[in-house]
Amino acid sequence: MALEQNQSTDYYYEENELNGTHDYSLYEAICIKEEVRQFAKVFLPVFFTITFITGLAGNSTVVAIYAYYKKQRTKTDVYILNLAVADLLLLFTLPFWAVNAVHGWVLGKVMCKVTSALYTVNFVSGMQFLACISIDRYWAVTKVPGPAGAGRPCWLICLCVWLAATLLSSPQLVFYTVNDNARCIPVFPHQLGTSVKASVQMLEICIGFVIPFLIMGVCYFITARTLIKTPNIKKSRPLKVVLAVVLVFIVTQLPYNVVKFCQAVDIIYSLITDCDASKRLDVAIQVTESIALFHSCLNPILYVFMGASFKNYIMKVAKKYGSWRRQRQNAEEIPFDSEGPTEPTSTFSI
């Protein structure tokens, strides 16, 4: 987890004279980041709690509907189902990070590695599934649609996405550990230097943001252009959905990846030598990564609840549940002083 990499350790830098002459009186200044830790203790638990509750409700509904009610699935349905599973698994790691921000890591080194790896796997795979959805929508609008069923290639693509995200999480399994301050952070061997740490972050930026963003941008641009040129169809709703998907992705993911890129550059070239600047970078990582995580709460709204097909399934479930409740209430409300049957009542309807 990127926001844990700096907030738990002090930033050290050397104060050098402008004339470049060596002076033995120079010493390493220590940047105390207690206010950064205090900010994390308040901000992260509150934001993670809101994200966890909201995302759990939306994504659980998606998984339940697709798993138990919608048996005939298209490729987009399979991608959305995998996206919801990835978002749920990502959300389940947030309580651990919230406790870590307040009390430190209390679950041991193994759980530190596993939780960090799960976080990366599901965060990256979620971005990849967003790209897969955009490609499928592009083909659906610009080409002749294929078979209605998902088919084996779709599940093969999903498997490749999960495998790629798992491989990208291997540094978390190797380098994450619990330090002396009881924080779950990455600790790289001295012989590997800063290049490995920066390379890992750059790779996460490329696979988790740049590639999905380029794919989504190209596919949705062509999709929108095709919709505009297509006669005799209702264009406003599909175009609004496309615009909303792209804007939400940019607003939630771009700031975090820009800050993460700046952090990677600083790891290589040590550009930040000011304590206040280092603190601002740490706070920026915490805020922007939290906003990026909130995207998992918006996915069900963007990709599912906006669709008419999924709304129909929600209506069916609501009617079925309403009918069951009405029948149960009728059974419970039979008067004890009457031997005749109760009056029939209408079923619940929306």
UniProtKB/TrEMBL annotation:
Q: Where in the cell is it found?
A: Cell membrane
What is the species listed in this Swiss-Prot or TrEMBL entry?
Oryctolagus cuniculus
Domain G-protein coupled receptors family 1 profile intervals: 58-303
Topology versus the membrane: Multi-pass membrane protein
To which protein family does this belong?
Answer: Belongs to the G-protein coupled receptor 1 family.
Name the residues that span the membrane: 42-66, 78-97, 117-135, 155-178, 198-221, 241-259
Signal sequence coordinates:
none
* InterPro entries noted in UniProt: ACKR4 (IPR005383), CCR1-9-like (IPR050119), Chemokine_rcpt (IPR000355), GPCR_Rhodpsn (IPR000276), GPCR_Rhodpsn_7TM (IPR017452)
Instruction: Quote the protein name from its UniProt record.
Output: Atypical chemokine receptor 4
Q: Which CDD domains has this protein been placed in? A: 7tmA_ACKR4_CCR11 (cd15176)
Q: Which GO terms describe its cellular component?
A: external side of plasma membrane
Just give the chief location class.
Answer: membrane
User: So which domain of life are we looking at?
Assistant: Eukaryota
